[in-house]
């Protein structure tokens, strides 16, 4: 794996905002030739610094979906194997957008996106109520999304 330099950092920051930007477009912000940009982006992908290109859906397609943040407490004596199985079953669900191990009273935070309350109830029963590792779960329904981003702003200090 190669070391990242300032140009690579600039390219990664730009591509996080628009992964479809052409090499010519990227040269407006990165002082390299289009061919050098193309080579660097190809290397960043090959070296695993870019793991995926995804399409973010427009709010008009997603605004009517039911989104919820579910905070989960596992049983104090739950085996690590049971918690790992819970994480794996959550990860296998398309409706689960994010699974976080958290500190504090809860052990996991899970972001879900489903069609409606009936879908949420079925998912919660299947994933939380019926799982022996789950002690308790609490759901907060999301009323409105003001910002959603996967952007991780990088600086040269992040990769030294």
Description:
- The protein is of the alpha+beta class and 160 residues long.
- The chain has six helices and four strands, in the order H-H-H-H-E-H-E-E-H-E.
- A four-stranded antiparallel sheet has the order 2-3-1-4, with helices on one face.
- The two termini are 14 Å apart.
- The model has no long low-confidence stretch (mean pLDDT 94).
Can you give keywords for this protein?
6 helices; alpha+beta; 19% strand; 4-stranded antiparallel beta sheet; 160 residues
Based on secondary structure, the structural category is alpha+beta
The rough form would be described as elongated
Cα-to-Cα separation, first versus last residue: 14 Å
Overall number of strands: 4
CA-atom Rg in angstroms: 20 Å
Fraction of residues in helices? 25-40%
Strand content: 15-25%
Put simply, the count of helices is: 6
What is the topology, as strand order, of the major beta sheet?
2-3-1-4
User: What does the average pLDDT come to?
Assistant: 94
| Biggest pleated-sheet summary | 4 strands, antiparallel
Could you give the order of the helices and strands? Answer: HHHHEHEEHE
Instruction: Give the low-confidence spans.
Output: none
What's the structural blueprint in terms of helices and strands?
Blueprint: H1 6-17, H2 23-26, H3 34-46, H4 59-62, E1 66-74, H5 80-91, E2 96-101, E3 108-114, H6 117-129, E4 134-141
Antiparallel strand pairs: 1-3, 1-4, 2-3
């Amino acid at each position: 794996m190669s070391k990242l330099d300032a140009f690579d950092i600039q390219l990664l920051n730009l591509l996080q905002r628009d992964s479809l930007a052409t090499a010519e477009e990227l040269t407006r912000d990165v002082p390299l030739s289009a061919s050098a940009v193309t080579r660097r982006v190809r290397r960043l992908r090959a070296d695993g610094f870019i793991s995926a290109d995804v399409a973010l859906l427009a709010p008009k397609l997603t605004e009517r979906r039911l989104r919820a943040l579910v905070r989960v407490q596992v049983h104090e004596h739950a085996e690590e194997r049971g918690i790992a199985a819970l994480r794996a079953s959550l990860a296998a669900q398309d409706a689960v957008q994010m699974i976080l191990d958290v500190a504090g009273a809860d052990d996991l935070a899970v972001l879900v996106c489903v069609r409606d309350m009936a879908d949420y109830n079925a998912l919660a029963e299947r994933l939380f109520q019926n799982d022996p590792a789950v002690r308790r779960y609490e759901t907060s329904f999301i009323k409105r999304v003001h910002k959603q981003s996967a952007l991780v702003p990088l600086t040269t200090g992040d990769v030294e």
